[in-house]
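If your schedule permits, I should be very grateful for your opinion on a structural question. Thank you for your consideration; the sequence and its tokens are set out here:

===
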Amino acid sequence: MKNPLLALAALAVLPLAAFSQESAPKHVVLENTELQNLHSAVTNRDYLIYIGYPDSYASHPERKYPVVYVTDGYWSFVKFQSIGSSLWYDQIVPEYIVVGIGYVGDKVDYNRERMFELSPSEQKEGYYARTKVPTGGSRAFLTSIKSEIIPFVESHTRADPSFRVMAGTSMGGLFSLFAMYEEPGLFQGVISASPAVVWDNCWLFRRESELRNLALGEDSKGTYHVPARLFMSVGDGEWPSFTGGILAFNEIIKSGNYVDFAYEFQVFPGERHGGSALTAFQAGIRFVFKPMMPSPVMP
């Protein structure tokens, strides 16, 4: 008589063997999303635009939706789509469209591409100067977002142009702050997670001071309009010098007397540089949309 345990083991193996031979693995497809290619005449680059639609988009063709633009779309797009799905269900934030900005190609060197476009100044010394990684492309990138990417999104989708959010982490967080200062009013919400404000010997500190002094005037009687809701954060487990720069910039913002400005800053206990992004994005999306929060009644 055959060993019954061996017979059961043989039966258990057969379906797995058949599956591996007859069925190829399938990619996961995110519902309510699409990819679009966009060539920029400003930067002469080809962007891969990730677009995520809210749950009600197809069933409510009369509605328009605020848009969350996020840098590093290849990493951060899914985070915002997932956060949105959960918070929409709980009726904590209004439904929004997510637009991630990435690059076309199968073997893109994301770090090289992002370091150029998310850095506001050309690094003359230091690691990126030594390794000859191009830097200083933020101005052109922001111009492309303003004059090409936003118009494309607002013509291709039912985007509400009255409320846009710019979000990013690390160098993307630096770029979000850059966009807030350089194009006031373009984005009504800004999420800056662990921003690399120490970039290029604290370039952003000098630029903020320059813009503020220009707005205030020689007699310091002017006003500095920064029309945005800004959420900024850092994890308390990040590099001390990096965290110190963010804490110092937080003090500058708090003492800046900006007009038409709302601000929240958080330090996340136990979070390091990579893990703090998801926590910051969820807290940030709650803050920037707080004035638009729907009824907190469970469905």
